[in-house]
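Entry 14. Ran structure prediction on the chain below.
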Amino acid sequence: MAFKVFIDGEAGTTGLEIREKLIGHKEIELVSIDPARRKDMGAKTELLAAVDVAVLCLPDEAARETADVVASLGDAGPRLLDASTAHRVADGWTYGFPELAPGQAEAVAGARRVSNPGCYATGAIALLRPAIDANLIPADFPLTINAVSGYSGGGRQMIEAYETHKAPLFEIYGLGLEHKHIPEIMRWSNLRARPIFVPSVGNFRQGMLVCAPLHLDALPAKPKGADFEAAFRAHYKGARYVTVAPVDASGRLDALALNQTNALDLHVYVNEARRQALLVARLDNLGKGASGAAVQNLELMLGA
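Output, structure tokens:
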């Protein structure tokens, strides 16, 4: 018998992507609410009590409200996978980056409430957690993280602006230095010092690069680029979706190369003569950065 899954907010970008990936899945039956009753909490509560997992693709406040409804159902309620920002650093929720650390995939598989990671956070944590765990970067080290994403990560208004040619070809944003992914990046990479995070958007639908530049001699361990590669390879040994990629001899990196996949590539560019390095994560912001990660987590939760 197939597991019943309800995508709450299936009409949004992430919801649509998750639904598309799950259609035809042999072990999952998608359940929908009548569009005319989607704001009827009574109807939603009735549906929630009848499914195995609810995937929340909602604004943060609506996600919290639905999570409260599920909590009120007790054992009759479904397991939750929240794709919003609402619960990514909340107590009682398991962080849905299975490659985070040994045992994390098993934790996701057994959890009743899983928070799906943010796209930028996925790239940043993938780079920083192994380096901090290996003592290559101190947890209190002042870091700068630069990133560029396709416009699909910015929500309905940004998508509309780019697709109607009203947006610039490239822009940086979040210049108040309060981006919502920063607490998530700090919590799950084990950073104690708040990084400077500079996100940007390019005129392409999807694809992402997340970069952490380093002065190697400013780090107490005085590491070499090879030390970061070794830490990444050890941390992600056996990982299905995370790869430590060879350096591209062209000296260039295409942000769109992993689109339509759940893959995440890690790159270490180093100039040992200058004692400078650049750590780069590449992913699809709608794949491993959103819907692909959600499907990976859902399959772990259901054993599907």
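The two ends are 11 Å apart (CA to CA). Will compare against last week's run tomorrow.
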